[in-house]
Design brief:
The complex is a heterodimer of chains A (122) and B (113).
Chain A: E1 3-8, E2 11-12, E3 18-25, E4 34-39, E5 46-51, E6 57-59, E7 67-72, E8 77-82, E9 91-101, E10 104-112, E11 116-120
Chain B: E1 4-7, E2 10-13, E3 19-25, E4 30-31, E5 36-37, E6 39-44, E7 51-55, E8 59-60, E9 68-73, E10 76-81, E11 90-96, E12 103-104, E13 108-112
Parallel strand pairs in B: 2-13
Antiparallel strand pairs in B: 1-3, 3-10, 4-5, 6-7, 6-11, 7-8, 9-10, 11-12, 11-13
Classes of the chains: A mainly beta (122), B mainly beta (113).
C-alpha cells in the first residue's frame, strides 16, 4: 500500500518561494510518475505538474515560469518549488501518484498525500 | 485548456435514493486508438484529499462500493450513486486526463435531503 507524506512551510510572504517535499512509502518509487495538485480554500482542484521516474517534467502552462518539480530517488522523495508567490497561490497543496498499469502511466491520481495549507500573506 | 463543467453545482438526495452528477468536457476525451474515455471521478470529504472512485469513465477503483458507477462517452459523462448512504456526503469532481494540462470540473456538493 503506497503512502505519501508531505511537508513544508505553511506561511509565506509575497515574492518568497514555496517549497514542499513528498516522501513515498510502501511502494516502488522508480518506474512511477508523481504530481502536485493544489486547491484554493473552498475552491476546486488545479494540476500543477508532474515528474516521471527519470526526472522528466511537465508543467501547467499557467504556472510553468514559476514551477520546478524535482526528484530524489535515493530518498524516495519528490519536491515542489513555486517562486514569486502571491496571495493567489494560497491553497492546500497535495502530492499524488499517477495511475500506472501495463507499463504506462496516466495523469489521474490513485494515491494522495494529506495536503499542506500554504498561506501567502504580508 | 479543456473545460470540464459539472452539473448541478449542488444536489440534495434522500437516503437510499439515486444521485446523479453530470460532467461535460469542451472536447472529446475518447481516444480512438484504444476506445477509452480518459475521464476519472473523485470523492472529497472535508479536510481530506480526493479519493479516486472511477477511471476510464466506468472502471471502479478497487474497494469502491458497487453503488458507485460511471457512464458516458466522448464529451458527456455521468456519475451515479444507486442508493445514497450517509457516508457519501462529499464533493465530487470529474477530471479529464486526455489533454495536458489535466483538468477538473468545479465540483458537485452532495448532501442528504
Amino acid at each position: 500500500q503506497v503512502q505519501l507524506q508531505q511537508w513544508g512551510a505553511g506561511l509565506l510572504k509575497p515574492s518568497e518561494t514555496l517549497s514542499l517535499t513528498c516522501a513515498v512509502y510502501g511502494g516502488s518509487f522508480s518506474g512511477y510518475y508523481w504530481s502536485w495538485i493544489r486547491q484554493p480554500p473552498g475552491k476546486g482542484l488545479e494540476w500543477i505538474g508532474e515528474i516521471n521516474h527519470s526526472g522528466s517534467t511537465t508543467y501547467n502552462p499557467s504556472l510553468k515560469s514559476r514551477v520546478t518539480i524535482s526528484l530524489d530517488t535515493s530518498k524516495n522523495q519528490f519536491s515542489l518549488r513555486l517562486s514569486s508567490v502571491t496571495a493567489a497561490d494560497t491553497a492546500v497543496y497535495y502530492c499524488a501518484s499517477l495511475y500506472c498499469s501495463g507499463g504506462a502511466c496516466y495523469s489521474f491520481f490513485d494515491y494522495w498525500g494529506q495536503g499542506n495549507l500554504v498561506t501567502v500573506s504580508s | 485548456d479543456i473545460v470540464m463543467t459539472q452539473s448541478p453545482d449542488s444536489l440534495a438526495v434522500s437516503l437510499g435514493e439515486r444521485a446523479t452528477i453530470n460532467c461535460k468536457s469542451s472536447q472529446s476525451v475518447l481516444y480512438s486508438s484504444n476506445n477509452k474515455n480518459y475521464l476519472a471521478w473523485y470523492q472529497q470529504k472535508p479536510g481530506q484529499p480526493p479519493k479516486l472512485l472511477i477511471y476510464w469513465a466506468s472502471t471502479r477503483e478497487s474497494g469502491v462500493p458497487d453503488r458507485f458507477s460511471g457512464s458516458g462517452s466522448g464529451t458527456d459523462f455521468t456519475l451515479t450513486i444507486s442508493s445514497l448512504q450517509a457516508e457519501d456526503v462529499a464533493v465530487y469532481y470529474c477530471q479529464q486526463y486526455y489533454y495536458t494540462p489535466p483538468g477538473f470540473g468545479q465540483g458537485t456538493k452532495l448532501e442528504i435531503k
